[in-house]
Amino acid sequence: MPANILVVEDEPAIQELLALNITQAGHNAIRALSVEIAQGLLRETLPDLILLDWMLPGMSGIEFARRLKSDELTKAIPIIMLTARSDEYDKVRGLEVGADDYVTKPFSPRELNARIKAVLRRRAPQMTDDPIEISGLRLDPSSHRVTGNEAPIELGPTEFRLLHFFMTNAERVHTRSQLLDKVWGDRVFVEDRTVDVHIRRLRNALSVSKHEDLIQTVRGAGYRLSTHMSE
Ligand code: CA
Hints:
Elements lengths: L3 E5 L3 H13 L3 E5 L2 H10 L4 E5 L7 H10 L8 E5 L4 H9 L4 E4 L4 H15 L8 E3 L2 E4 L4 E4 L2 E2 L4 H12 L7 H9 L7 H15 L8 E4 L3 E4 L6
Parallel strand pairs: 1-2, 1-3, 3-4, 4-5
Antiparallel strand pairs: 6-7, 7-8, 8-9, 10-11
The structure holds calcium ion.
């Protein structure tokens, strides 16, 4: 699943380079030349990751990072800080306000993409392309293939994303609204029972290889993928 990555960088040439790298890595780049523009974009949609330049006109990147991390709505969005200085003190300050990682300019595309991938893997594993296997059920994001005990399983796009999310967040219970946020996207207007419809379709598809019991209903709470018997 491609991640939406917000790039906040005031130097157009660097912004261009960052956006190009992000696109080539298979993600979507959303661009902002200042904190003000970024704030406007955040009111519309929440990105999966923010690449944030340290030195910006107006509000600095570090101050913006601090605000994002103290706001309920945005605090879970991972942030990678960009800076021209490889100062250890800056690094500590960046991490202190809650940034997840740090890239020093000039950066190599390979390094940048490795950092992005590492942060996504840690914070939003459903955004990476790593194949996952649980109890004979295998999902490969890059080829979009799902197999159960090596037999192909056909899934619609929503069921695929749902299963990917469950598999990368196994054993945890998710409420319907959390699933709507993570699988359907932020602030999308869909009724909670839509989730139930897609869960039913997912179970039906998984029943081909008898994996349907992995998707469990947790009464009064939501759903989870678990390899343990549901109670
Ligand atoms: Ca700058």
